[in-house]
């Protein structure tokens, strides 16, 4: 098991296990936690520039699973994530179609979504155990640990599970927006956001989706909730 996932599981157990632990892998490797310098600030050489726009086109992951019943109505997850820096605030917007909608009891239809730390989205080639599914653990070598949960509080690196978006309607759409001061987010992270070297991952299929026992998850969180369903690499728009 990769070090980052071990860290995730350990942190989850320490937290007494709850769904909030979906963000447990936001623990930063110590090498990445440094002292902030003025250049990390908005407008600095290494920071995010005022007015800058960063976009990730979200492409489906695990499309076959997303088209199995009970997911067959809504299609596969596709969409766009945008991040704009306005008055020192990061304004995050994620628009998605094809996500499992809320059916039955919470957290069904819930879609944990994060800025992950590494530069790459996984592909089906990362299905290490050959079960036809790239699970949350198999994706870690490519997408790295969770960096910023895209929930109701961007400046808190722990997931506020109830504030992740929920798919709605036949097409399983959602529109998410949140904002926080770049300085507050980077203070919580302990390092610059450096968005052009990050990407966005959306997780979650219907909880009734049958998955083989080979599909790994984080702790006792249902594998359906952690399954990566879309990913997009961030780029700065001119
Ligand atoms: Cu994630």
Structural summary, described in words:
- There is one protein chain.
- 13% of the residues lie in helices and 23% in strands.
- The protein has 238 residues and is α+β, with helices and mostly antiparallel strands.
- It has one domain (3-27, 50-236): Immunoglobulin-like, CATH 2.60.40.200.
- Strands 1, 2, 3, 4, 5, 6, 7, 8 and 9 form a 9-stranded antiparallel β-sheet that branches.
- The site of copper (II) ion has 5 residues, from strand 4 and strand 7.
Features:
single chain; 238 residues; alpha+beta; Immunoglobulin-like; 5 helices; 23% strand; globular; disordered N terminus; binds copper (II) ion
- Text of the CATH class: Mainly Beta
Number of E strands = 9
Largest sheet: 9 strands, antiparallel
Radius of gyration, in Å, reads 17 Å
Mean pLDDT, nearest integer?
84
What's the domain count? 1
- N- and C-termini, Cα separation: 40 Å
The gross shape turns out to be globular
pLDDT < 50 runs, ≥5 residues: 1-45
SS content category? alpha+beta
How many helices? The count is: 5
- Heterogens: copper (II) ion
């Amino acid at each position: 098991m990769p070090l980052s996932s071990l860290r995730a599981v350990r942190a989850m157990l320490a937290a007494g296990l709850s769904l909030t632990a979906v963000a447990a892998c936001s623990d930063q490797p110590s090498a990445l936690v440094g002292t902030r310098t003025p250049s990390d600030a908005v407008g600095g050489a290494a920071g995010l520039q005022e007015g800058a726009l960063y976009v990730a086109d979200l492409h489906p992951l695990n499309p076959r699973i997303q088209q199995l019943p009970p997911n067959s109505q809504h299609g596969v997850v596709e969409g766009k994530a945008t991040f704009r820096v306005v008055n020192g605030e990061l304004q995050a917007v994620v628009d998605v179609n094809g996500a499992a909608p809320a059916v039955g009891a919470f957290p069904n239809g819930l879609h944990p979504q994060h800025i992950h730390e590494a530069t790459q989205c996984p592909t089906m080639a990362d299905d290490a155990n050959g079960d036809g599914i790239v699970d949350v653990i198999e994706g870690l070598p490519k997408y790295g640990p969770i960096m910023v949960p895209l929930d109701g509080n961007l400046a808190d690196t722990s997931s506020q599970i109830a504030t992740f978006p929920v798919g709605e309607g036949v097409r399983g759409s959602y529109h998410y927006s949140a904002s926080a001061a770049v300085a507050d987010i980077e203070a919580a992270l302990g390092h610059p956001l450096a968005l052009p070297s990050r990407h966005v991952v959306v997780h979650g299929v219907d909880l009734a989706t049958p998955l083989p026992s080979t599909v790994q998850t984080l702790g006792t969180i249902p594998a359906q909730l952690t399954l990566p369903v879309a990913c997009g690499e961030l780029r700065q728009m001119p």
